[in-house]
Amino acid sequence: MSETTVPDETSHAARVMSRLPLNTPHRFYRGGERILAFRGLEVPPDFDGHRPEDWLASTTRLFAEGGDGVTVLDDGTRLPDALAADPEHWLGAAHLAAHGVEPGLLTKLLDAGERLPVHSHPDRTFAAAHLDCAHGKTEAWIVLDAAPGACVWLGFRDELPADELADLVEAQDHRLLTALNRIEVSAGDALLVPGGQPHAIGEGVFVLELQEPTDLSVMLEHRRFGLEQAHAFLGLDIPRALESVDRGPLTAEGLTALRRRWTDVGGTGHALPEDAAEFFRAEVLRARPDAPATGAAAFAVAVVVEGHGTLTTGTGPPRTTEVGRGDVLLVPHGAGDVRLEGELTVIRCMPSA
Ligand SMILES: [Zn+2]
């Protein structure tokens, strides 16, 4: 990209890296104060307490609840329009050839101010067969902070026959939650949640979340959260929707394969278990004063999770910006390799390779 083709400094900056503004659509559950604190923002006087998700570099709209969610860059361009205008710059030729002009990834900060309902997301096979959608919604949680004793729930401990699952969904009582594996989490945990696996995030858990780019959820628990039945089951008949649910068991061994400690990475390495790679990548870059960290060119949401330093992109005229905990940057593939200097940790959320 030669600089002479760029009309002004604002769009030039967006082509190298953009600081992503807060993008917190209203949701049915509480939360959001940890997002504001992480981002270094005051709680606004009109804060309604229902802003628990910050959608980062989103080309996805909410399935219900108003349909917001798409990211607008700081020069006012909607991200899908920016991508469409120069897809090779943003996504790189290899990604473009394999996946077309969509990142195939939705990244969020999520602050659970209350326990989320037990829900699941369809996998790709079910979404293609019944929802006319190429993506399911496998997701992953990178725990950035958690209140003492806070937990998540993932997968049925014992296999649940289809009629028992239907009975539990009909009853809408505590048994749906207690049938799941309960997992205490702390900052540094990472979990992969395959499409189909029922799950819930507990109160006080703050995560960086990667997902396939849909908003398709089967809300197994919905009554106590006041969700409409039509939205709770994706507009499908309930028995059909429940066919998308993995009825288990998810054993201790199975759970181990879905977990990792992202804080164990020194230098550059994967935050997520291997099986995530088919859907998305999360790369930890940890720089120390005597050891910069580097990453290869990629369309990436770079979230500074610890410390302070500089981020430099490599190609064209190099561009360096000061960054610190809570900064979120969108870096296009065409900006080149990235280099971190200082004492900081960045997690780069990227499409599958
Ligand atoms: Zn989920």
TrEMBL record:
It comes from the Bacteria. The keyword Isomerase applies. InterPro entries: RmlC-like_jellyroll, RmlC_Cupin_sf. SUPFAM superfamilies: RmlC-like cupins (SSF51182). CDD domains: cupin_PMI_type_I_N_bac (cd07010). Keywords: Isomerase. GO terms for molecular function: isomerase activity. This is Mannose-6-phosphate isomerase. It comes from Terrabacter aerolatus.
